Amino acid sequence: MDGNKAFLVIICFLCFFASTIDEGNSTEEFSLVPLFIALYITFKYYFETKKISPSEAFIVGLCFSFIFWMRLNNAGAISACCIFIFIACLLNKDYKSLKNLILYFIGGVVIFSIPIISYFLYYNAFSEMIYASYLFNISYVEESGSIFNFSNYIGRNLIVISVLLSGAILYYKKEKDSKLFLFACLLFIFNIAFANMGYAYKHYFILISFSMVAGSILLLASLNIKVNKYVIYALLGIASSYMVIRYVSKTKKYDAIRKEGTSYIDAGNELISKIPDNEKSRVYYYLVRPRFYPMLEISSNYKHFAHQEWMGSHNPDIYDEINLMLATDKPLWIMMEKSEFENWNKSENRNKEFRRILSATYMLAYENDLFLLYRFKR
Q1: By percentage, how much of the chain surpasses pLDDT 90?
Q2: Would you state the pLDDT for residue 258?
Q3: pLDDT tens digits for 67-86?
Q4: Entry pTM
Q5: Which residues, 6+ apart, have CB-to-CB distance to 31 below 8 Å?
Q6: Bridge partner residues of 284 (DSSP)
Q7: Which helix (H) or strand (E) holds 373?
Q8: What is the pLDDT of residue 141?
Q9: Cβ density class 294-329: b for 16+ within 10 Å, e for less
Q10: Which of 214, 172, 221 is closest to 41 using CA atoms?
Q11: Left if phi > 0, otherwise alpha if psi is -120 to 50, otherwise beta: which for 295?
């Protein structure tokens, strides 16, 4: 593929990425670099070398592990690449590349995983990490009511599926090689379908840009056309304008959020300042969002430290653990976000025992516009 076609692929990716990015700083964004490294190695194997070296298999193993320990769902595209290379090696009877893929991929996984596993084992938190990162996600998907929801963001799904399918078909017509149909099917299953599992949020679809890029490369490689540099300049101008518009709209939105954040920090610190220093380790923060801790620069004192009602709706055992902690440890203070508390009060099917304990053994000591602070009745 010549430089202009490659540049066209980059432009398409940037436009698609700009349309899917949401609040930023998501695991999907951090996953893109290792994902595209794996795609490069896959296409290099298929189009050029027809071999997998130990270093390439090791790098793919590292990339897979990076994503696996961050968020398993994001690793689907790398899984598709590995399965495709594995099958291609079998079909080509290239057992040396197959050995390299298996042994050095496992080596990369092990090398990357040992420090992470050791860290959590050292702090006796390995089982908790496995539950929070993997097992809870299963119930989260199941609770959505449907495993796959392709109707969410249907436009983005159709664009990517169309590009991927067109690329595979046209490349087959040109080269008469059906292996890339297999790769397209694997990407549909492990990349596009995975992004549509359970609840669907815009930033999940950052991941399917992988399939769009793969399809675009196949599409352009199949077409015997030259892309004029002036066409590239025009498309780059259009893409840049679109990205600037997206940036401005997001900036306006998050300027308002930053202003809200300042008020949030001030309100939180105001109530925390009411707590004696020797009692600040006995505060249970309930119905607060995860941002609460980094914004106020504090640490949680108890297990199940954020979104407890939402977490418990997926796993009622969490309610039992919280209620047992309240009965045995008896935190001296309970602090909650007022808006979350008001929404919780309207719900009938949440942690009723916590509601009873709060009413019976705690009294409202302080409040402001954003937070409530309860004190244990001594």
Answers
A1: 49
A2: 61
A3: 999 988 899 999 999 999 99
A4: 0.82
A5: 67, 70, 71, 74, 75, 207
A6: 334
A7: strand 371-376
A8: 62
A9: eebeeeeebebbbebbebbbebeebbeebbeebeee
A10: 214
A11: alpha
